[in-house]
Amino acid sequence: MNKISDNRAWWLVLPVFLLVAFSALIPLMTVVNYSVQDIFGPGQAYYVGTEWFKEVLTDQRLRDSLIRQFAFSGAVLAIQIPLGIGVALMMPKSGVKGSLCLILVAIPLLIPWNVVGTIWQIFARGDIGLFGWAINQMGMDYNYTGDTLDAWLTVLLMDVWHWTPLVALLCYSGLRAIPEAFYQAAEIDRASKWAVFRYIQLPRLKSVLIIAVLLRFMDSFMIYIEPFVLTGGGPGSSTTFLSQTLTTMAIGQFDLGRAAAFSLIYFLIVLLISWLFFTAITHADKEK
């Protein structure tokens, strides 16, 4: 006997879907309109076709920002995903200790982005900041306001501190969803901790890790507030990522045409790479 599906619940979701689509469509149409016009003022716009896209794609400053962005996002994923898994594995499974760990781990996620930048701006100072002062006391010449490498690593460390808890909480929820029977069978077979992780825990975390990778890539690829507050994009342009370059172009220089074209390319890059990540991970999961 065939089961009759009831899709009436979709009518409850439809108003929200239409509202979100409408609120996203109008700004997108405006950006597309600006990307093919040269705007001199109210009522003074001239069609230029793909001129702005050509200029954006040949702009060396934007290429440098793109390289820095890819390097930063790659480092974020390489550090935060394994670290988040490790933190989740060390957290207690239940009880008061488990609840306390969940609260402590989630604290960085509750702090607003601009406050995170301000905290690290003070924390990493070499004169009054605990982190900067401690590094200098070890004999290292640390100065994130004057050294390019120090600034880049400080931004990376700040992001790791702020967002690794998200990965840890996602992995923790995935680990708690594994039936206890799997662990009992592994104990009977005298499997090592590595074998339990390799053959039981990691395969069961794949769906959670897909979400974690996608979220962290998209967030890190669009990072703006934290490095802007911490370093202002400096020293030089060492921590000027794509979002800051776009903001400077659109607001600082009021170059709306090039900024619109750049934002569309920016959007397509994020969309394409997220799709590649999702496709690659799900395809590998299906093969197994």
From TrEMBL:
| Chief subcellular location | membrane
Subcellular locations according to the entry: Cell membrane; Membrane
Q: Which family does it belong to?
A: Belongs to the binding-protein-dependent transport system permease family.
The protein here is known as: Sugar ABC transporter permease
Establish whether keyword Protease is in the entry.
no
Source domain of life is Bacteria
Name the CDD domains for this protein: TM_PBP2
Name the residues that span the membrane: 12-32, 70-89, 101-123, 151-172, 207-225, 259-281
What are the residue boundaries of the ABC transmembrane type-1 domain, all occurrences included? Answer: 66-277
Say which species the protein is native to. Marinobacter salexigens
